[in-house]
């Protein structure tokens, strides 16, 4: 018997099953485990009591767990389905949405919008992989967890740069300044994420705070835009109503993740449906979609509010 997979013994009748001692013993693999049955490295959230895939030591078994209803299933599919959707948008958005609306779209428009879609796809795909393969073993879980955090950094970076571009599409010096600032913060986050200390479960609230702070650094280009173009101009350029909603969803998600709401109040009741990580995932998807709405709105604003001369000048510039 493997130390990883527990096996249950069951007696089944042989032949017509009318007994007389003719039984054979069959071994059945147990698929789901309770929190207290997990190896120590896997015991992360003691408020989720059941429904665990225990350490598999096998990539194939991790892939097979995709087809077993367990307490990671919602986490995996909320981001996998969204990742595939963003990938399809990446293939189709240029021809289906952008060109029909504004045939004057520039290569930079395509690049910026697809850059954001690529970031969203990358982040959600990294997250799906983390939740699928973290069951493998302690070292694999640690490595995939870093991949997961890197995905978040990529998404924040791509979100910020797309926002900065549309905020300052006609003032490239500001675009360069805030892009350098974003890349500097992204590098600092990457250094922290890749350190093993950061990954420890005691640092969960700190991790949540760290990503909130990086995301909120978007306040600086928005404030600069408002100072430069006035409230109306600054707000319209970056579609601030969507960005504000996006920030609320991200912050709510990070707080729910950080404080493990609601399972902390009702341990065991949200094992398969509705625990904090699942809510966090759904809020991240909604927030990422709101950012896409903002980017598309900014793109439309840029093209519909420029007169012919201005637009022609822009096209020749980029
Ligand atoms: Zn996750």
From TrEMBL:
Keyword entries, A-Z: Membrane, Metal-binding, Transmembrane, Transmembrane helix, Zinc
Entry superkingdom: Eukaryota
Binding annotation for Zn(2+): 131, 277, 281
Localisation per UniProt entry: Membrane
InterPro entries: AdipoR/HlyIII-related
Transmembrane segments: 74-93, 113-133, 149-168, 174-194, 206-227, 239-259, 279-301
Single annotated GO MF: metal ion binding
Claim: Transmembrane helix is one of the keywords in the record: yes
Membrane topology note: Multi-pass membrane protein
Entry keyword Cell inner membrane: no
GO CC terms: membrane
Gene Ontology annotations of biological process type: intracellular zinc ion homeostasis
UniProt-recorded name of the protein: ADIPOR-like receptor IZH1
């Amino acid at each position: 018997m493997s130390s990883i997979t527990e096996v249950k013994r069951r007696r089944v009748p042989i032949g017509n099953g009318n007994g007389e001692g003719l039984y054979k013993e069959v071994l059945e693999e147990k698929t789901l485990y309770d929190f207290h049955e997990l190896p120590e490295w896997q015991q992360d959230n003691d408020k989720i009591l059941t429904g665990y895939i225990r350490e598999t030591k096998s990539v194939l078994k991790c892939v097979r767990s995709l087809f077993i209803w367990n307490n990671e299933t919602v986490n995996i599919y909320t981001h996998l389905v969204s990742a595939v959707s963003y990938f399809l948008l990446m293939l189709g958005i240029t021809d289906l949405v952008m060109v029909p609306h504004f045939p004057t779209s520039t290569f930079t428009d395509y690049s910026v919008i697809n850059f954001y879609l690529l970031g969203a796809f990358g982040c959600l795909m990294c997250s799906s992989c983390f939740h699928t393969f973290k069951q493998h073993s302690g070292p694999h879980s640690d490595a995939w967890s870093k991949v997961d955090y890197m995905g978040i950094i990529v998404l924040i970076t791509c979100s910020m740069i797309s926002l900065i571009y549309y905020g300052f599409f006609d003032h490239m010096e500001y675009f360069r300044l805030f892009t350098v600032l974003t890349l500097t913060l992204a590098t600092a986050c990457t250094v922290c994420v890749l350190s093993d200390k950061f990954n420890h479960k005691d640092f969960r609230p700190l991790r949540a705070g760290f990503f909130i702070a990086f995301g909120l650094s978007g306040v600086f280009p928005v404030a600069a835009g408002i100072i430069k173009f006035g409230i109306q101009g600054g707000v319209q350029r970056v579609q601030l109503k969507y960005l504000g909603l996006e920030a609320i969803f991200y912050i709510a998600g990070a707080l729910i993740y950080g404080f493990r709401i609601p399972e902390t109040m009702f341990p065991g009741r949200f094992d398969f449906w509705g625990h904090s990580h699942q809510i966090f995932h759904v809020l991240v998807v909604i927030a990422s979609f709101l950012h896409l709405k903002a980017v598309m709105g900014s793109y439309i604003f840029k093209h519909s509010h420029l007169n012919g001369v201005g637009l022609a000048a822009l096209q020749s510039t980029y």
